Amino acid sequence: MRHSVPPLNDKSLLKSQAYINGEWVNAKSGKSFEVTDPSSGAVIGTMPEMDASDIDLAIKAAADAFPSFRKTTGREKGKMLRKWYDLMMENADDIAKLITWENGKPLTDAKGEVSYAANFFEWFSEEAPRVYGDTIPATVPGNRVFTVKEPVGVCGLITPWNFPAAMITRKIGPALAAGCTVVAKSPGETPFTAAALAELAHRAGIPKGVINIVTALQNTPEVGEAITSSSTIRKVSFTGSTNVGKLLMKQSASTLKKLSFELGGNAPFIVFDDADLNVAVAGAIACKFRSSGQTCVCANRIYVQQGIYDEFCKAFAEKVKTFKVGSGYEEGVTHGPLIHDRAISKVEQHVRDAESQGGKVLVGGQKMPDLGSNYFQPTVIRDMTSKMQLASEETFGPVAGVFFFSTEKDVVAMANDTEVGLAGYFFSKDIQRCYRVAEALEVGMVGVNTGLISDPAAPFGGVKHSGFGREGSKYGIEEYLTMKMVTMGGMGQELQG
To answer: Where is the Aldehyde dehydrogenase domain (predicted)?
Structure first.
């Protein structure tokens, strides 16, 4: 059955084609794939199932557009991004409806994502005119040394489904600000949001070929390899799992691309005895259960010190009991479905594994078939141990496992006992402890007394197997630039005349 289209104010934002060289196109093969509503399981539309031949056309379009676009002044690029930002905000309600439709997150959350996503265009519209080089004192008399920053070239961008708008704007914004052209592969689960953004880019007057949005589901591995193996594409930015990131890095080796990867996480969330309990509980709720736990920076392992362990578990579980699970369009719903059945299977596996090893479920713990096949109860489990799957694997779902710890030294060791290092959080009123622990955590981002750290002004990225490179902030544009050094000789001559 086909699901009814959400009542968009502007129905022309609903596109069922890819966007290449300023035109809406189908796959050369004529093939398409179905996109389903995770809430109902109903088919909501189709998108082109593109292959390497389609990607080659998109790469050529981006390459043809690059020589002209790279010469565009920073101020002009800033104006384009600002126009795109304005159009996003004008159409925010419609974009939010599309996000909820294909991703499942509640409409309130989707509206928050649209604002967050648009802010990357606003931020990088202001960074575009501020790409500075340096003048360097030379050691050789008569030489003058300076540097200039130049766009790296055509960029391949691969984005995930959990933030269909924000993940693409966080990459395209700095790429365009730097003067690069892009081929962006939208997620197969949530391609309609990216297509709507492409339509707004078209309206914003961004030149043809500068932005190309390609689509695929079953052919995603082929599309990824076409991007990574292309000698024309000079940089790849990817957000997704660590395993896929390693594969893309290997595929990129033969062409020595510039890379920035934001990969998997296993975020520790630490609550010390001296923390404000109410603040810590609120932080854990926001951090763990945002988007039903389907974020790379959400708390995966919650460590609570012995003095407040029981009190925290009780207060945390009571708060979770107030959640309302259902379709993202329903009034009052706080949490929607997971993205697909594989996500449900992993979440259930982690819960059953914890139970089998002595974990006590305080709330939730079951699927919700009455709502649909992709629903799982928000869950809190206490008495967790390091031997449980959740301790070493990213759950990516609405399951909060609460671990017990005794000392600061012990919990930092447990927090760092993982291959990945994206985000970490802790709560304490001791200012010296705040510095000590923030410096000791092996992660790229730390939240102190807050569970929400995402901000266009803040550099986003990880260490260890969580990848490298930073997105957002003043550092985000650097990922799309190369430095050229110029040495001018014979410049120290005496004045003439």
So the answer is: 24-486
- Domain definitions of the chain by residue range: 11-263+466-484, 268-448
Pick the CATH number of 11-263+466-484 from 3.30.565.10, 1.10.3720.10, 3.40.605.10, 3.40.50.10190: 3.40.605.10
Which structure tokens are listed for 23? Answer: 């035109």
Instruction: Report residue 346 as tokens.
Output: 């992993």
pTM above 0.70, yes or no: yes
DSSP line for 422-467: SEEEEE-S-HHHHHHHHHHS-SSEEEES-S----TTS-B--EETTE
Report the mean per-residue pLDDT for the chain. Answer: 97
Strands laid side by side in the 379-384 sheet: 360-363, 379-384, 399-405, 299-305, 267-271, 423-427, 445-448
Choosing from 102, 262, 478, 479, which is the catalytic residue?
262
CA 22 to chain centre: 25
Strands 379-384 and 399-405: parallel
Residue 330 designated active-site: no
CATH topology of domain 268-448: Aldehyde Dehydrogenase; Chain A, domain 2 (3.40.309)
Name the pairing type of β-strands 32-36 and 43-48. antiparallel
Per-residue DSSP letters for 287-348?
HHHGGGG-STTSEEEEEEEGGGHHHHHHHHHHHHTT--BS-TTSTT--B---SSHHHHHHHH
Percent of the chain with pLDDT strictly greater than 90: 97
Question: DSSP letter string over 376-404?
Answer: B--EEEEEE-TTSHHHHS---SSEEEEEE
Task: Note the pLDDT tens digit of each residue in 56-94.
Answer: 999 999 999 999 999 999 999 999 999 999 999 999 999
Q: Distance between CA atoms of 289 and 298, rounded to whole angstroms?
A: 8
For residues 225 and 253, the answer to whether their CB atoms sit within 8 Å is no
The whole-number pLDDT of residue 154 equals 98
Which residues on neighbouring strands pair with residue 214, listed in sequence order?
185
Which two three-digit tokens encode residue 127?
A: 């960074």
- Helical packing angle, 242-252 and 220-229, nearest 10°: 40
pLDDT confidence of 497, banded at 50, 70, 90? confident
Cβ(339)–Cβ(38) below 8 Å = yes
Give the separation between CA 273 and CA 277, rounded to whole angstroms. 9
